[in-house]
Specification:
globular, 11% strand, seven-stranded mixed β-sheet, 290 residues, 7 strands
Length: 290
């Protein structure tokens, strides 16, 4: 894998260089760093005000309805959601808008199966938190049939190492995959599409988002998972219609934004489940001729 470890100061200087042409090299570097750090603090103040909780969405989703999960209830497939606030659906006003629910409904409608949805995602989580979420899954019961992971935005805003963030994701994906779960990762979104982040900081986080996404793709595939490059697929739409696709905080997706994300995640999950079912059929014992 190409080394993508990058320091925040290095990224800041690169992103702000164009606004500091004419200064001495040392002065420009320090001024760029201070400018980007100040902008980062201001941006986090603007986008960090939503302390609400995502709607409760866990339960059983069938082609024609919903029911709460209770021990003893039957489900054909268990879907579990891991990651951060976007995985949990922060910014949604009802459970029907939550990305996990949209995916569960899509699975139920497409396959005719009863889908149990469980959410382990936690608002504010970075890739460091994935280990705890997977631990909680193992404590709670058997691993799910399918896992969806949405992570990365907080790794960027908290300036975590790209390579280490990708490695932590790969470790979590590997644990889920080895436990028998199909894993689909929605990679880091393009934070350059967030208009609440001023320039030149927006250029920096755009570059860092893309670098993290690429590193996540490599780590996930190496661990046996599948990926959906959310930044590549959604950035153009979010830039073109921020009023429709962002929620009131200007950072998390709106119901329409989550719906758009789900339309990209669902087909990849269906392909992964289909391939697993075909592989299981190929190795099933064949009836003997009489």
């Amino acid at each position: 894998m190409v080394e993508t470890r990058i320091g925040w100061r290095t990224a800041a200087v690169a992103g702000a260089a164009t606004v500091l042409v004419g200064s001495g090299a040392g002065t420009a570097s320090w001024a760029a760093y201070r400018m980007l750090t100040t902008q980062a603090g201001a941006a986090r103040g603007l986008i960090g005000r939503d302390t609400s909780k995502p709607p409760e969405a866990d339960g059983i989703y069938a082609p024609h309805g919903y029911e709460p999960w209770r021990t003893g209830k039957h489900a054909d497939l268990h879907l579990m959601i891991f990651g951060d606030s976007t995985a949990a659906g922060l910014g949604c006003s009802s459970a029907a808008e939550v990305p996990g629910v949209r995916i569960a409904h899509g699975l139920a409608d497409t396959t005719g199966r009863r889908i149990r949805l469980s959410t382990k995602a936690i608002s504010g989580a970075t890739s460091k938190g994935l280990a705890g979420q997977v631990d909680a899954m193992f404590v709670a019961g058997p691993p799910p049939d399918a896992s969806v992971v949405l992570i990365g935005a907080n790794d960027v805003t908290k300036k975590h190492s790209i390579s280490r963030s990708a490695q932590r994701l790969g470790t979590a994906v590997g644990r889920l995959h080895e436990a028998g779960s199909v894993v689909v990762v929605g990679t880091c979104p393009d934070l350059g599409s967030v208009t609440a982040i001023p320039e030149p900081l927006r250029t920096v986080v755009h570059r860092w988002s893309l670098q993290l996404s690429r590193a996540q793709i490599a780590a996930t595939r190496a661990a046996g998972g599948r990926t959906v490059a959310m930044g590549d697929l959604l950035s153009k739409d979010f830039r073109a219609a921020p009023e429709q696709l962002f929620s009131a905080d200007g950072f998390h997706p709106s119901a329409a934004g989550y719906a758009l994300a789900a339309t990209h995640l669902l087909p990849e999950l269906l392909r992964a489940l289909g391939e697993r079912d075909m592989a299981a059929a190929d190795i099933s014992p064949q009836p003997t001729a009489t």
